[in-house]
């Protein structure tokens, strides 16, 4: 497939089309104020990527409740006091020609008490001495996701994407290892997926037919079962509950190592599901024009750019200009990132990523 297909528009079940097949992945960067409000550092980052040729730009993970915070200086969307900064972010993305989305996040059992978070596990056996969430508390968190989506809409975003990956609360509830509940949110995969589906359905009711809903899903670690996840993804796509599925793979080319789908490409386990009007894309070590185009051949409707977009903010424009473009090799120096426009706050966050910033780089 020619790389030119990456620059064809993509329609969705709800809301406007993307101008091309590039999404900027949701990238937590620890640049906000301690109370979750956006700073000039957040706005500068968003302005950079807004004019970089992405069809859709996600914010980093924004916590929907203060008790669900995971990171210092994490973006928040729990309160109307955060609307001004969120509105500026949405406006900047719109002015750049792309669609905009807030990633909605709750850390669940991984909430950080040092920052005011309250660890909120699905199971009483996950954290010593900490009880599982009550049914009423689960329903409160569900409603906080929905209220945050409405807040994103008021700020001018085109949509939201609940964070169902990496062991955060929605991923945690999907896991039979981390969810041994006996209420309606535990037991069968249908029950363990109930929180995710109630959030998605609630957002649609609250925000109406023109608002876009994505869903970020990881399918590895945390006791998740690939066969079960395929089953629930099949249902969500068949019912057209979302506009797009974002598969957060560690490597878009990885092969399934065990179980029913052993030997298959992980991506194909999901791209082979009938998707009706739902769009499907992936992240995972997409660092070149060639790999981006290959993923469309492998069944993706779009690609999510993460690390390549941090290294080169204008990655889509570079790909458009050169079908052989490849991103810089990792690790890079901190000065390389400064020269590219990253703030010291963002660079310090990236120092925590394995093999991204060269060790000892000032």
Give a description of the structure.
- This protein is an alpha/beta fold and 362 residues long.
- It folds into two domains: 3-328, Alpha-Beta Barrel (TIM Barrel), CATH 3.20.20; 330-362, no CATH class.
- 34% of the residues lie in helices and 12% in strands.
- It contains 13 helices and eight strands.
- The chain has an eight-stranded parallel β-barrel, surrounded by five helices.
- Helix 9 (289-297) links the parallel strand 7 (279-283) and strand 8.
- Helix 1 (40-50) runs parallel beside helix 2 (83-96) and helix 3 runs parallel beside helix 6.
- The chain is globular, with a radius of gyration of 19 Å.
- The chain starts with 21 loop residues before the first strand and ends in a 12-residue tail after the last helix.
